[in-house]
Specification:
Blueprint (H helix, E strand, L loop, with lengths): L10 H33 L12 H9 L1
């Protein structure tokens, strides 16, 4: 008869656990992306701009027009 007292995991708890797991995965993905970006920036000569990103001076000229 001990089996009738078995506790069951509720759907609310399962949903909370699933949400937590998803947030952890998103956090890992963001961390990996930041790490990749840092290694890419380290390989580029100092003062060079990534492709497609205008220099700060160019942005100021665009804003004035």
């Amino acid at each position: 008869m001990a089996s009738s007292n078995k506790r069951k995991t509720t759907m609310a708890k399962l949903n909370r656990e699933r949400g937590l797991a998803e947030r952890r995965l998103e956090k890992q993905a963001k961390k990996a992306a930041r790490k990749r970006a840092a290694t890419e920036d380290a390989g580029r000569p100092e003062g060079s701009q990534p492709v497609g990103e205008p220099a700060a001076e160019e942005l100021g000229d665009i804003a004035e027009t």
